[in-house]
Amino acid sequence: xxxxxxxxxxxxxxxxxxxxxxxxxxxxxxxxxxxxxxxxxxxxxxxxxxxxxxxxxxxxxxxxxxxxxxxxxxxxxxxxxxxxxxxxxxxxxxxxxxxxxxxxxxxxxxxxxxxxxxxxxxxxxxxxxxxxxxxxxxxxxxxxxxxxxxxxxxxxxxxxxxxxxxxxxxxxxxxxxxxxxxxxxxxxxxxxxxxxxxxxxxxxxxxxxxxxxxxxxxxxxxxxxxxxxxxxxxxxxxxxxxxxxxxxxxxxxxxxxxxxxxxxxxxxxxxxxxxxxxxxxxxxxxxxxxxxxxxxxxxxxxxxxxxxxxxxxxxxxxxxxxxxxxxxxxxxxxx
Length: 335
What we know:
Four Helix Bundle (Hemerythrin (Met), subunit A); 10 helices; 14% strand; CRISPR-assoc_Cas1; antiviral defense; CRISPR-assoc_Cas1_C; endonuclease; hydrolase
């Protein structure tokens, strides 16, 4: 367990020797060696020991506090920061140049390729079972190709390049979510994609899982010393970690969407039992599954590496792009 999420309301998180200890009603319900942790995510209404804070800071373990949506809104870490002034200056110079359009094109292209990969991944499974939904998914994946090609036609000198790029991305998303809905890969309660405050269980699960993914991206960017709130695609807004939102686009489909699709029976069970939209058990299942994907092995430059380590390498490649040493290439997943 490298990344721990604690969601039990009223619990206490403290320190016992070199162990993180979670208690409920003065009873130990969980223990984890600090040496195995990188991040601890804490939801609301959880008490915390200052001794644990100091121990985590000494070991470089980040404590991330989540709001009601599961989005990280505060982070505690040690005073040592790997911030490099040259990289941040180069980041701002890059964002204000024409190069930002090329980088945004690459990220959105990669996101769309990974959405196609998810459709084709499940298409292959359904075709093996002889189900007609398999061919429908493949046809929908093929429909995306012309829109993918349209991204390359955007001129970096256009003043409205961002609007055009996001417009194409939005059209692809419509095809993508319709395909998942029409082939019944998601629960029947899912009709369309909803963001913040969604009351439908599939959308609520997706939003919660995206928040966990965002914490991974946030941590990788912070490790590299980049400015989280200065993005090249999403518009800057106070409190909006634009760079984290930019980079996580290419991981959304494979890491989160694919995971939630596989949890269809769990989500349907939650609906059937009329339980709280996302109770602590379902949240734990989601966080455990996302953590499993991030700690799983993927092929990267001819070697098998943990996905979370690949993400960190991709962030360092982004740093090299900002300083003009390399051209950023997105991570596409093999289906």
